Amino acid sequence: MSTPTMKESEVDVLIIGAGPAGLMACNALARNGIKVRIIDQRSEKVAAGHADGIQPRTLEIFQSYGLADALFKDGAQLHTAAFYNPSSNGGIELTDRVPDVTAPTARYPFELTLHQGEIESIFLNSLRKFNIEVSRPVVPTSIKIIEEKVNDPSANAVQVVLQHNDGDQELEIVNTKYVIGADGAHSWVRKTLDIPMIGEQTNYIWGVVDLTPDTDFPDIRNRTAIHSNNGSCMIIPREGDKVRLYIQLDDKSGLITSTGRVDKQKATPELLLEIARKTLHPYTIQTPEVFEWWTIYIIGQRVASKFSVQERVFIVGDACHTHSPKAGQGMNASMGDSHNLAWKLAHVIKGSATKSLLHTYELERKKYAQDLIDFDKKFASLFSGKPRTEEHQDGVSHTEFLKIFQTFGGFTSGIGIHYADSIITQSQSQSTALNLKIGERLLPQVFMRAADTRPVEIQDLCPSDGRFKILVFMGNTSQKTVLERAHSVAEELGSLLSKFANGNVFLLFDILSISSAKKADVRYNHLPFLLRSHWSKALIDDTDATGKKGGDGYQSYGIDEMGGAVVIVRPDGYIGTIVPLDGISNVGSYFNSFIETE
Amino acid sequence: MSTPTMKESEVDVLIIGAGPAGLMACNALARNGIKVRIIDQRSEKVAAGHADGIQPRTLEIFQSYGLADALFKDGAQLHTAAFYNPSSNGGIELTDRVPDVTAPTARYPFELTLHQGEIESIFLNSLRKFNIEVSRPVVPTSIKIIEEKVNDPSANAVQVVLQHNDGDQELEIVNTKYVIGADGAHSWVRKTLDIPMIGEQTNYIWGVVDLTPDTDFPDIRNRTAIHSNNGSCMIIPREGDKVRLYIQLDDKSGLITSTGRVDKQKATPELLLEIARKTLHPYTIQTPEVFEWWTIYIIGQRVASKFSVQERVFIVGDACHTHSPKAGQGMNASMGDSHNLAWKLAHVIKGSATKSLLHTYELERKKYAQDLIDFDKKFASLFSGKPRTEEHQDGVSHTEFLKIFQTFGGFTSGIGIHYADSIITQSQSQSTALNLKIGERLLPQVFMRAADTRPVEIQDLCPSDGRFKILVFMGNTSQKTVLERAHSVAEELGSLLSKFANGNVFLLFDILSISSAKKADVRYNHLPFLLRSHWSKALIDDTDATGKKGGDGYQSYGIDEMGGAVVIVRPDGYIGTIVPLDGISNVGSYFNSFIETE
């Protein structure tokens, strides 16, 4: 019991840590109507530096929450990756320029960079619409899982004591159903709950400086990897005219102690820039009047042994995995964790899904974190290695480096994430929509609305609103028999879905129909109501009025026009399963495995 | 002299009327840093109904002020025009569906509809950033042009007395350099200054109702023209689920008096819908619980005999031209007037241009207004005419109607506007950039930024910021001789432009360079400073990293890669003149004809 002087409160989810991972979780839960609270030990959001790379898949995720425009407004876009290697006269020279993103299906074929503080602002602005502010500076002082309540989904099974650091150090007891630890690499939640990190530090030490460069280097606005005989350097353009330099530090830098640790006392941004200068030769770069931000770090590649305790406390982001920043994955993997977890928590809290749904969080995200680290090891080792030259025949060649860069393009872009089979990812009838891979995200595709021929991106019709999207590909409904089939499919589907959500189908499901009828003769209002519950839900696979957009959806999805398909998209945008039109009952079995029926 | 009790104030431009035309002018002037004030007799902005069609060129103009996103957010888009005609069984049937916009170069290939109040809100929000609010309810009571001051550009040559209708009817004297009368079809400014309207009323009488329809009509979300044996009707989809119906009224409607006037007493929206119902048969439409708005009008097609008095008082919008709403031109022509006038006023007020610049407003816009009315007469007569049937062999056939609809596509979209030769539109060297028509708007085209391969729409690099845009097409600067030519062109151009704006070239001019070098080998920093005053100003004509965007700019503009070209774009986005690289001195003669030199 609490002492009488302690304030006590209640919330469905308490999020500890208001960095990108915590804020993504908070925003997603709030959007799903969950009572959520978020605390942070810092008294203000991040002001400069820190992570800043947003990968193509993360852009799609932001867009699914209606937040991508804010990123596009100010972010820098990285379209081209340039590679520099030793030249014959002792300096470096341009070896190659290739697309920065190697993921042909990416909706946004570029990386975006934006200062972490701006990214946090985007979430903070969004949260204000839900009347949520971060409680800060506030730290947790204890956390307790109440064993006897763990199996009662409606119980506040976790008790956290908070300390408000903004005055008289007031303590507060929070009784909550769930806790999300989004408190970074040194996570208090993880440590308090004794979750070990598996993995190790590397010997690769890097310096980072943010500056507005005055330089004659021709690729200063591209993502540029420089392998020189005087060390390696990565250039990441940032918003406005800013640039971030990642600079490899070795023994010659004078910044490494005899025990292989970084001597942070000796380091200055001027010194880091001086090292970069040697790598950039014969190109020059001036010392700026101010360095916006700088740091030094040793690459650590570790994953937490588990991502939750009794599926009541979860850890996300840096709290459960750390890796090298140059692969540009950190913030993306972190926000991806929260995106994956939030809708599951929301369904369980609302009582629409069974608790087993929560188990899939660790299943899906721990494997991804491990894959990421395996990739990161390869990439970091190649990038830190010496370039291949006459003297160093065992060095890293450009061909080798480029191959890794491009082979892992799907992975580093986030586009290639593939979740393994589980209750929510059921590999069946893959051949019915050959190119929509079960476990991967829904491929972007432009369709036309049947009623007004307006081109729409299907991803935009599948927002992260917590609902499962049921895409019904009916074939050419301008043909009488096909239209009849659509009517019988709709009847079966409607009766089947009405078993869930007390029959209030549209609370849990959003239904889109995609006909292969043509704009000249389609009659959207001939469709059964379930397939056009609003006129904007009926789409066709045709070009727009100009003939320039759309028209190849069935083909690009690998769906046979005669056969049709039902595609179930999870609330986070990943394909849950695929069902043929003559096997509609499988839609029921899919949802029966984790959705509550009344 | 004023009486001692009267408040007296001073402003550079006083705008009378805060509808779309007045607000467009106000926003444009404020953005150009001009001291401007706007008054309106209404105590609030328009709440419903009124004009609501935004044409493709108007969308481009909004985008040039950074205001298009707000339109796209809520506006309905009209991509398809459908045509219904009498069917063999006494009702109507679908005859054809065609693209609603017939203007292949339109950046936005659709019309947009949005309630006039929302459009006014977009401007009002923008004006708040300049700390400008509409003074309302305020009416002008007298206007006086002070003859002896007219020729002194810096003098407040106009005196307007205002009456504040929000309390004690306070009077105020405003001393101003210029007045813009944007006070609608019954313009007080026009009447007070005795400017006659030329033209006449037609016999075409139309009813308008706004409603959210419950109907089985398949083209209710398309722009649909219905010619039935029971009258004509035009459907214009609007934002959300709303629709506007234009309904032809004839003698049978019971709403026309024996003298051919509308009997407004008898009219109700229910009655109008009842007439529409006969036209729509066999399709049905339910009577809604509420009609959002409705009206009845007689088409008047008139143009003011002049658009200014001594180039000190100007009239814009409905104050100087009225036409039928179904051609969807009203608001577009009105805002187009203001867009044309504002930058000219700004330059003259700032002293950078000679007063002769103002003369081009009437020259350009009066001709356009007259053309519009000529078109409108044809269109209104065809649309009001009987459909051709067995009995009516002299009726209007679909083929005939469609031909007019499409022939005038360039015109009705606003894309085809072509300003005649004048000091600011100098037809010379058209063959140097064959497809950039001098006097027409700059064709949209995607180029890549040389430094970071980011695709950019050239129209977005030519915002309505008051500056002339000088586009220098240099050819392939990866070739040494071509690069050398770029250096000498830049030198000549720089020395020539420095004669204007006291040598502060970038105050008056924005310079963009477009090389035909390829992304693989371009070196943006080899260009002379004038052609890359910021790294983002250097463009290349190549595809983006994915190969999907851009890459055909020289060709689509009709510019020879070897020859190059300099294209001068006026601050309103229209091509001012074209100059070959070996005739740079013509850039000087162009600006010398109206820009002040010190």
Automatic annotation (TrEMBL), chains A, B:
Any GO molecular function: oxidoreductase activity, acting on paired donors, with incorporation or reduction of molecular oxygen, NAD(P)H as one donor, and incorporation of one atom of oxygen
Annotated FAD-binding domain residues: 10-375
Alphabetical keyword list: FAD, Flavoprotein, Oxidoreductase
Limits of the Phenol hydroxylase-like C-terminal dimerisation domain: 417-596
CDD domains reported for this sequence: PHOX_C (cd02979)
Lineage top rank: taxon: Eukaryota
Keyword set includes Cell inner membrane: no
Pfam families: FAD_binding_3, Phe_hydrox_dim
Family note: Belongs to the PheA/TfdB FAD monooxygenase family.
Protein name (Swiss-Prot/TrEMBL): Phenol 2-monooxygenase
Source organism of the structure: Pholiota conissans
